[in-house]
Each structure stands twice: as C-alpha cells, then as structure tokens.
Specification:
Layout: E1 10-12, E2 15-17, E3 28-32, E4 35-37, E5 43-45, E6 49-53, E7 59-64, E8 69-71, E9 75-83, E10 89-96, E11 99-107, E12 112-117, E13 121-130, E14 136-138, E15 142-146
Parallel strand pairs: 8-15
Antiparallel strand pairs: 1-2, 3-6, 4-5, 7-9, 9-12, 10-11, 10-13, 13-14, 13-15
C-alpha cells in the first residue's frame, strides 16, 4: 500500500488528536504508528498498530423463488448469492415462517441454494447472512403459496344441455 503522513496539531491538554475522514478506504487491515518530535530535538516512535475497517454486511441477491409464487410443487429450491467485501465465505440461514430452517456457508459471488419440501399453504421466507465480523444482512421477506389440492365440482348440479351463447357459472 501507500504511506500517508498527517500532522497532529489539535491539542487538548497534553493530548493531540487527529480525525481522518476518508470514504475511499476499503475493508481490511491497515497498519499505523505515531512518530513525535519536539523543538528540542527529542523524538519517539510508537510500535505498529493495526486498524480494521469494516465497510458493511454481506449483500444478498435472491433469484428464486419469486415473491408471491403460487405453485403446486411442494419441493422448492431457494437460489441466492452474496457479496461480502471482506470475506470469501459467510454463514447464511433460510428462515421459513419466521423460524430458522437451515444454514450453510455461502461462497462470495457464487450461486447458492437451499432445498426444502413445504406443506400446503402460505409461507413467509427470507435469508439472513452474517460474516465473521458479525455484520448481518437480511433479505426482504417474501411469500409463496403451495397449493396441491385439485379443484372439485359437483356434476349433479351441472346442466346437461347448454345452448350456444349461454354462460353458465358453477361454484
């Protein structure tokens, strides 16, 4: 990397302070130290210290199933990927109906999946991912409906003869 020098001129009592505002830092570890000297020619240099910069939680992209899916297939694949600026793998969890369902390690920038058999009905789901710095991101909650019941009707009440142009409704 590159070296940057800063002068410490803000004195509060016997302490000097310096605030560095730089939004271009990327996540990672940075080493720093302090070298001080005075007008009498005295100097001192601290040991190297490490500063860790964390820019954010993993970003989650959901691919499937789509929100408000209505299907008769009760075996579903939940596809997603993550991007994390500091780690190559993060822990991701599928939540179904607000309960932890299953977890796995997801690799950065790779399509991942959870497979789950679901019962008939409406289900809420989302994915939550946490990196090694305990930064967590939750996807937007989505819903899906599993409907495996075929429609039924009563043929006893159906008319056996219908003229062209007539409309018939059955419930």
């Amino acid at each position: 990397g590159s070296m940057q020098n800063y002068s410490l001129t803000n004195k509060a009592g016997d302490q000097y302070n310096r605030t560095i505002t730089n939004n271009s830092f990327v996540s990672g570890a940075y080493q720093w130290r302090v070298h001080a000297n005075d007008s009498a020619g005295n100097s001192n240099t601290s040991s190297w210290l490490t500063l860790s910069i964390l820019r954010g939680a993993p970003e989650i992209t959901i691919y499937n199933p789509g929100n408000n899916l209505n299907t008769n297939n009760n075996s579903l694949v939940f596809n997603y990927s993550i991007i994390d600026d500091a780690y190559t793998a993060v822990n991701c969890t599928l939540f179904l109906n607000n309960e932890r369902n299953q977890s796995q390690m997801a690799t950065n920038a790779t399509m991942e999946e959870f497979t789950q058999n679901l019962s008939e009905g409406i289900h809420a789901w989302d994915i939550s991912c946490t990196d090694s710095d305990a930064l967590t991101e939750n996807s937007t909650e989505r819903t899906l409906t599993i409907d495996t019941t075929a429609p039924t009707f009563d043929t006893e009440t159906m008319l056996t003869q219908i003229e062209m142009g007539d409309n018939q409704s059955y419930s």
